[in-house]
Amino acid sequence: MLRQTSGSSLCYACGKLNRVDAAVCFYCGARRPGLWGFAPVLGRFVGRFEFARLVIVACIAAYAASILLDPQAALRPRGPFNFLAPSTSALVALGMTGAFAAETGRWWTLFTAIYLHGSLLHILFNLLWIRDLGRAVESVYGRSRTALIFTAAGVIGFLASNWAGVPRTVGASGAVFGLLAAMVAYGRDRGGLFGMAVFRQYWQWSLVLFVMGFLMADVNNVAHAGGFVGGYLASLALGSRERYSDRGWHHVAAGLAVAVTIASFALATVTAVAD
């Protein structure tokens, strides 16, 4: 039975117990906390997936597709930093961004390129950060706002990169810097001993990673800086759970961000076939 008509269920916004038919959550004020009786079954399905886990799955799927599109090029012997590197043609087909994409009006690559990676080490490094940072940010901002921060940071990072003339680029590192920025913003906003400890920790990590980018070849530091700014501004605009409880528009906006990302991959596929 998919719909529960009596008893209690957890509010989709704050996670606290309410009557399944309540019009408003007693704790956070969210409307229809039981989602007309469908909250229990949706919670059993959706609750299994952390935001970070969903992003990791999407990145791995996109990386596997980029390898399979041109396996001969990916398996070509190279150095450790370029081991199992997808070919440029495969990445372009899946939605690589860069100045060339901006010049040809391929706006959708701002979304698709977040989930594409240029080598095995590239994706492993980013996914390790996404796993840890995604959980931390989700605990503070909630899943919907975390998705919005991640997407905004990735897109703004690539906008800055394309504007600066970086020819071709992929990777979630701009969005990763956005997650770091979200924790920096939270720590500064919260204040006190705990808030300042969070601020210092994530600010130091951000600084170290940014400096490391200048010590390594082929690192898109412009996207890193743009992603940090984008994540920080998105965090300030959305606020943490301690400031504002989850609202319906947070979920709608996050759903739209996911829908646009999926549509962007569809557009990349159609464009690749047409080319």
Briefly say what this structure is.
With 275 residues, the chain is an all-alpha fold.
Notes on the protein architecture:
The protein has 275 residues and is mainly alpha-helical. The protein folds into 2 domains: 8-46, no CATH class; 51-274, Rhomboid-like fold (Up-down Bundle), CATH 1.20.1540. The protein has 12 helices and 2 strands. It has helices spanning 39-46, 51-69, 71-74, 88-94, 99-103, 109-112, 120-141, 143-163, 173-190, 192-215, 221-238, 248-274; strands at 8-10, 17-19. A two-stranded antiparallel ribbon has the order 1-2. Helix 2 runs antiparallel to helix 7 and helix 8 (143-163) runs antiparallel to helix 11. The longest helix is centred in the C-terminal third of the chain and has 27 residues, at 248-274. The protein is globular. The N and C termini lie far apart (48 Å).
